[in-house]
What does this fold into?
Amino acid sequence: MRRSSYGFIAIAVALLFIPLSLKPADTLPLQIPDVAFWRMVTGFSEEAGSFRFQYMSNEREFAALIPELKKSTKPGGVYLGVGPEQNFSYIAALRPRIAFIFDIRRENMLEHLIYKAVFEMSPTRVEFVSRLFSRRTPAGLSDKSTVSELFQAFGRVPGDAQLFTQNLEAIKDLLVKNRRFLLTSQDQSEVDGVYRTFFNAGPGFPYPGRNFGAFFGGSYADLMTARDDDGEPRSYLAGEDSFQFLRDIERRNLIVPLVGDFAGTKAIRAAAAYLKEHQATVTTFYTSNVEQYLFEQGDDWRRFYANLATLPLDSSSTLIRSSHFAPAGARLRRVPSNYVMLRSSIADLVKAFKEGRIQNYYNAIQMSQ
It folds into this structure.
């Protein structure tokens, strides 16, 4: 009896010294079956809204932020984002287990499905660029080629109409026949239009709103060859390793594109519930400059922060935003470049919102670094 008591005491004492930081491991799947993936895409999504559609980002400054993000973000977490291809560069750098992309425009979800198909069908970066823009592969390229060499070479190759037709058919076959995603006839027509835009523009694809607000977005090649402050290229096509990570996660259905309004009542909350069910924590939420528009639309910003509060967070959960303004003491300063990329603690933002310390866009930006 006494030995049993001593044993119980020893176990109890040992438990006291287990680090409090240890949490149950998440139960996120290693792969999502096709049926479950499509159920998430349709079931988590909201009714589409309208906003000018852009096929690519205009935030060339993303590269400068990635080195610090890699230092502060543990791989194997959860990534949330908005918009098209810029998410791939963050995902490739941060290596999450799963990613959800929210966008009010249904076209964005469909563009991500095009990317998904092109990733899956392309064993290398060279084949990916060839298939994305329907250009025949120029001689001399390999998996060792730099991203600058890739886009310089493909930039000299004209579009091939026959290749475009073959690629488009293969993309839709993969999505509809192989994966059995239930795309409507309207969806398939939108896929045709988005993919044709890439074909017509080529890798020199200019940002469609290049003169909007006097902010120059550059071309697809500019984005892919963007470098950090030390001169290192940081896009998802900068190296074969980054590309292969993305290809693998796409093949396992772990980048989930949703139709969702940041201020909506469903998409973010549905993803939050899924993550909580799997004991997973958000590590990164890339929001671009969406907040700026939410603050211009009545109480939409309040609804967005209320949605943020439903996410499973910890002290390291980070929000990435782009802005034309940067914190400068008690005020903001206009940045001389196109954008400045900023970081904020999501938990601190939620706390400030609940305490009434966020009342306008400036308050939110002032919590950035």
